[in-house]
Design a protein that fits this description.
- It is globular, with a radius of gyration of 32 Å.
- It has two helices and 20 strands.
- It is mainly beta.
- The longest helix is centred in the N-terminal third of the chain and has 31 residues.
- Helix content is 9%, strand content 33%.
- The protein has two domains: 136 residues, Jelly Rolls; 142 residues, Jelly Rolls (Sandwich), CATH 2.60.120.
- The N terminus and C terminus are likely disordered.
Length: 381
């Protein structure tokens, strides 16, 4: 069958238009996997008590507080991805001698995640728990239980994490966990269990010595002891603190002398630790890092006493420099206090000089030996 000439010309633009549409579709199909954000939902934070008409994400059921002998909270959860991990950050008030248990419940069976989430400081605290996909394994209930009738939980943040390739030093063996807000931490620190006490570790000529084994309240003045075989060449002290009000810093006392001050880091203002609580004058619930360079002239051979106190930023050193002023009205605690000591190797005596001899005329001139330029080995622990 012979078609009119105008059919070919009218059909060609339509074909080109259809082809260009398919070409755009193919380009978008190829580019979308590169541009598409993660399918995991955004972090979700809520305060307690939970309002009855408050909406929740599709993966989270309405929080329930059943009536039991102990205060409880149940969070029904459906993991959005079978390979996703759940990071749970809890902001709570510790009770003296109390406990906060956390478990994962499925089909009548319960797996204990933390026997006691408390750290024994008896004040407002913040801790984070990592729940792996191997533990979740589908739909379940995150169960909190506290002694007494009051749960003591102020706020909970839930964040889903995915496995992603990253560049990590081969010296780091632990899995690293990076939330959208906050610092990267090794996974053992997020296990919900009491932290293992670190031992003194040598790295070349520097030794890191832990001063505290457990978190300690310090507002009433607590003395820590460090025994040194001999004074170091340089030293650094680092810690984590909680409870220090804004506008104050920590004063470090070594052997009853003022050694210096520590101004802990200020968290991002988007941090969920900023809470307006009557029993938290600092307005922040969480641990903050701080460190300072220790004057080695204050350290001595034998037992060294280390103490901490709080001081207002606006006060001069002369207005509040008394050693007796080591108390603070606000609850304050510290943990992970370490002292780094640098012991440079002793200087080596100069090599004895070799007396020069006048060579005989018919003897070749001797070649002078080069001075030993090897770096001396560091001090052994």
């Amino acid at each position: 069958m012979k078609l009119p000439l105008n059919f070919y010309f009218s059909a060609l633009p339509k074909f080109r238009l259809k082809f260009s549409r398919w070409a755009c579709f193919l380009v978008l199909s190829i580019a979308c996997p590169l541009l598409r954000a993660s399918d995991l939902p955004s972090p979700y934070t809520f305060d307690l008590p939970f309002q009855a008409n408050q909406a929740t994400p599709i993966w989270l059921g309405h929080p329930e507080t059943p009536h039991h002998a102990f205060a409880t909270l149940d969070l029904p959860i459906i993991p959005p991805d079978p390979d996703a991990s759940l990071l749970v950050t809890v902001y709570f008030q510790e009770k003296e001698g109390g406990f906060l248990r956390i478990s994962w419940q499925q089909s009548g069976a319960a797996q204990m995640l933390s026997d006691n989430f408390y750290e024994g400081i008896g004040m407002n605290n913040q801790r984070t728990l990592l729940i792996t996909p191997e533990t979740l394994q589908g739909e379940g209930t995150l169960h909190f239980q506290c002694d007494g009738t009051a749960l003591g939980i102020h706020r909970i943040r839930l964040e889903w994490l995915e496995n992603r390739a990253s560049l990590v030093s081969p010296l780091l063996q632990d899995l690293l966990v990076t939330p959208s807000m906050g610092l990267t931490q090794p996974s053992p620190a997020l296990s919900g269990q009491p932290r293992q006490t670190d031992e003194a570790v040598w790295h070349n000529q520097i030794v890191t010595v832990p001063i505290t084994e457990l978190p300690e309240r310090i507002e009433q003045g607590v003395e820590f002891s460090v025994q040194l075989d001999h004074a170091p060449g340089s030293a650094r002290l680092a810690l984590k603190e909680t409870g220090l009000p804004w506008g104050q810093h920590i004063v470090v006392w070594i052997n009853q002398k003022r050694a210096g001050t520590i101004s802990p880091a200020v968290p991002d203002l988007l941090d969920d630790g900023f809470l307006a609580l009557a029993n938290s004058p600092g307005g922040y619930v969480g641990w903050r890092d701080g460190s300072f360079y220790v004057p080695v002239a204050l350290l001595k051979t034998g037992v060294n006493a280390v103490q901490f106190s709080a001081e207002n930023d606006a006060l001069s050193e002369n207005e509040n420099s008394s050693y007796a002023s080591t108390g603070s009205l606000s609850p304050m605690a510290i943990k992970d206090v370490v002292l780094q000591l640098n012991y440079p190797p002793p200087p080596q005596p100069p090599a004895p000089s070799t007396p020069s001899t006048t060579p005989q005329a018919d003897s070749p001139t001797p070649v002078a030996s080069s001075t030993d330029s090897s770096v001396p080995s560091p001090l052994s622990p």
